[in-house]
Every structure is written in structure tokens, then in C-alpha cells.
What does this fold into?
Amino acid sequence: MGKSAFFSRLTGTRVIASNYPGTTVGFTKGSLKLGNEMVEVIDVPGTYTLEPTSKAEEVASEMLQSGDLVINVVDATNLERNLYLTLDLLEREVPVVVALNIWDDTKHRGIEIDPAKLEGLLGVPVVPTVAVSGVGIKELVERFPEATSPRSPVRTRDERWAAVGSIVNEVQAITHRHHTWRERLQDVSIDRFTGLPIAFLVLATSFYVVRFIGENLISHVMEPLFDKLWAPLMLELSELLGSSGFWHDVLVGKLFDGEIDFFQSMGVLTTGLFIPLGAVLPYVLAFYFVLGLLEDVGYLPRLAVLLDNLMHRLGLHGYAIIPTMLGLGCCVPAILATRILESRRERLIVATLIAIAIPCAASQAMIIGLVGEQGMQYVVAVYGILFAVWLVLGFVLNHTVRGFSPELLVEIPPYRLPVWRTTLSKLWMRVYGFLREALPIILLAILAISILYTLGVFDAIANFTAPLVSGVFGLPKEAVVAIVVGFLRKDIAIGLLAPLSLSAGQLVIGCVVLTMFFPCIATFVVMARELRLKGLIFAIGVMIIVTLIVGGLLNLVF
Amino acid sequence: MSENKQITVRQMRAGQSGKVVRIAGGVGLENRLNSLGIRPGKRITKLSSMFMRGPITIQVDRSQVAIGYGMAGRILVEVEGGKR
It folds into this structure.
């Protein structure tokens, strides 16, 4: 752990870094000025072995073949285990430098390492570093030219461990320290009795904090901004455009009693800007802030241990909770993160479950905004139904998808206090990513919707699909527009339910169906890439069947 | 240190320490455990286990590793006699 933080420091390229193994699942390229030369630096997923056991580790092993220099980032608090990979690297013909990272943590954990001695024994440069704060990075770069490949003899595994053992004995001294409060906290959070109540507390608090930040940003910042500043401007524009006509309808949209309704006007500059910035952004910001804290503290792997049992019923193991949690933000990184799982079967199951039953932050913001107006119990109903679908579908997939899923085997990182600089920079990357990806698609979608409306295309589709939409789901036939748009972005799709004056029950059905039905285009692309055609067809097939069943059943209940 | 007996990690009590004697599994399991530092000769301490055949967390050197119940049944340890 710590390689991505290291990479960011080295190249100035921003990458997501967290306190758990498996944050990096692909590789990122950056560059670094070395003398007068620009060199390429590649951040690869972590591994303790060059015999990969997961897709992410495969990426690391493959990248190694092409490098001219390997920066081996070693966790100084775990010297013995990390040196195994170092020795393995030294046996290959590639120059290595070693960064003794997390150096700041060694002292209070009672670990003393002699870097000079280690350097002598390994025969390559060894530099103590603290990646999150930048200590030692410059010195390490200065020593790149000294990197060599000291032609170690090729050893067997046992010989290698024996060599590691004797090196560690010479360079490291450990003094026993008493349990610190941090260690005590670590113990209780995976204890069989106290672990689950703590997990419940952590998740409930997280949810509450997300909602608190999101709501307050909306009601105290975004809504006043749009209502007091933007709306008058838009009304002036409306007048300027003559209050009607094609451009008026495209840019400003419909007026309701001479006023702009940001949820329903459907103009590119009104609804098109309000949905991403006014309604969704506050929740995206709040969600990723809280998720970032959980990641950086190192809580998520503990959640994986606690929920392992439950996840096994779904054909997964506990670590699948990490992509699932990411899915509450956005499906795209979530489906990429399934690479940390060992088998194709697990990846297929978890990706299918995420695409169907896990609403992204953008959808959730809209659900809370729209359904919440009818009463919080309906919001709870939407979440409850989706959770039930997740459980039941996982259970069914576990019993139908062939093969078996391996067991949990994962390192649990120590708790660390988040470093604000890295936590906030990660938050910025994710929020910026949302704006860059979502904003253009939303604006385009709104534009397309208003043009298609004017052409009457939607009426034709609505009549054609009426038996499905009205017959099965019990929604007005115009709701098909939302379903179609859901293919582009789920947040606007849910927003399109607003003008339909649905009953609370219909709103619940509408939100559940929109969340489950067809992934948005971005998710679709990443699923096609990660699951290949066969997996994609499987996931989409399951999705259609399950949505029809659940939507139909809900229609009978409400 | 009187008679030391061999048990699996599953059978250890929380807080108990022991030395890994053997990993009774395939090469695949051996390799994966190996890469996390769990191998014959290593001293490990069991930290916790979950209910209903849930995963077991052990301490090995300075790191904590969570191991599935099945795997934990295939790691044989020689426990240290007496109380901790």
C-alpha cells in the first residue's frame, strides 16, 4: 500500500490512493523530469508475488516486463514480507531501487531499520520515504542512476525466504510496544461481538453524514443560487427569445405560470444545468467525501471480514463489498474494481448485482429529492426493495452460475489518520471526474429530449410500448421516455418522472425500475470491456428479466 | 513449554499463538498464503473469528490477515503451551 500516493508525488499525476490493498486495478502513466529527459513512470497494482492470483496482479506482472527501472515500494512496517518480492525482482534482469515507505510509522510501532545496512545487503539503493507527505522522494529520484541489477542467483521459494530472514535479522530491531488506542480500535472492529454493531454504527453515521452534507449544500447553497440568481436571468432570456419558439424551448424550456421549474422546464440552461449541479453534485461531493474517509482510515477491509458470511450466500466473498460500496458512487469505477476478485464467476456475479441493484450517487440524489417530497417512508421503500433485490438475486445467481467462488484471503491494513491533502485531492478528482463525464451527456440528453419532443417521436414510442409500461409496471405510457433516457443518464431519467404527476406508489415503482433497468451508457461500455460479450449478454438478460418481474410484482402491491 | 500439540488455525482460541507447521492444501493455496507471509516456521497469533464459519483474522509479523474458514482449517500450527 502507498504506491499510488508515491506515484502522485513522483509525477504530479493525480491518481486515487487509499488505505487498502487493491485500490489500483489498472495502470496509470505519468511522467517525470530526470535531468533533461522526460521519463515515463507507470503506477501498477500492488502485489507481493510475481505469480499473480487476480486480474489486478496480472497487470502488475505484465507491466514489469517492459520497464527499464523498477521502483520497489516497500512497506517499512512489514519488511520481511515485502522483501520477498524485492529479492524476486533482484533475480530478474531489471535495475531496482527500493523505497522504504511508511517510514514515519516505524518508530511508534517499535521498529528500527538500518537503511544503509539494507542497501549494502541488497546491492541497490534504499531510501526511506513517506509518500503521503513527500519525504525522501527527491533523494530517491537522485539515486535512480545508481540502480543496478546485481545478478542475484535464482533461488527457490524456501531459499528466498531464508535469505529474507537473514537480511531482516541483520537490519531490523523490534522493541515491544504496548497496545495503542489505535490497535485497540482495530481489535474491537473485527471482534465477533463488537464488530457488527460498530459496522452498523459506521454505516448509519456515514449515511447520515452524506445526507446532512448533501441536503445542506442543496438548501443553503445550490437552491438559493439557482432560484435567486439564475432563475431571474433565465426569465430575462426567455423574454429576449420572445417567450416561445424552438430556441426558447431548447434553451429555457417550458414555463409554469410564468416561472421556471428547474425539475420540469427541460431547457438545456435550466433543467440541464440544475440536475447535475444543483441536485446531484451536492450528493456526489458528500458521498465521495465520506467514502474517501472510510477508505483512507482503512475501514473497508474490516467490513469485508464482517460481511464475508453474508457475501458467501451470494456467491461472493467479503472483499466484494469494496466494489459494491464504490457502486453507491458510480458503477464505472465499481465494475473496474471487481478486478480485485480472484475468479471470473465472482466478477460476473458482483458486476451484475452492482449494475442491477446498486443505485449510483446521481440516481440516489434524484431519488431522495423526488421521492422524498412524498415522504421519507417512500425513499426507505425504494432502498429496501433494491436491497432485497440485491440479496435475492445474489442468492439465485450463486445457485445458478456455474463454478465456485474462492474464500477470503486478504491483508487488513492498520488504521491510519487520513492525510487531508490526499483525501481532498482524491475527492476533487472524483468530483471533477463526475462533472467532466456527466455534464456533457446531461446537456446533450436534454437537448435531444426537447428536439424529440417537438418532433413527436416520443408519442410514437409511448404508444408502441404502452402495454409494457402501463400494463406491467402500472406507469403512465409517457414514462417510457424516462426509461429510454435512462440509457444515457439515470439522474435525468428519474427527473423525467417529475412532470408525470405520479402517485407515491408509482414513483417508487418508477425509481426502482429506472435504477434496475438498463445500465447507463458509461456502465454499459465498461461492462462490455470487463465482462466480455458473453458476460455482458448474461448480465443484460438477467437485468431485463429481473426488472420485469420486480416491476410487475410492485405494480400488484402498490 | 511442555507437550506442544498440533491443531488447525480454526481450532485455536482467540489470543492464542503458535508456529505454523504445515499447510495442508495444494500448491496454489501454499503460494497465496506464502505471499502474505504465512508459511511453515512462522509464528502467528489468532486475533478473532466470526460466527457461523466466518473468516478468521490472524496476526503474522506486523500485519493482520483475514483468512476464510476453509483455508484456516488447512493451516496446521503447533500451539504454545499454557496461557498467553
Notes: Chain A has two domains: 3-174, 195-241+249-557. Chain A has a mean pLDDT of 89. Chain A is about 60% helix and 10% strand. The longest strand of chain A covers residues 28-34.
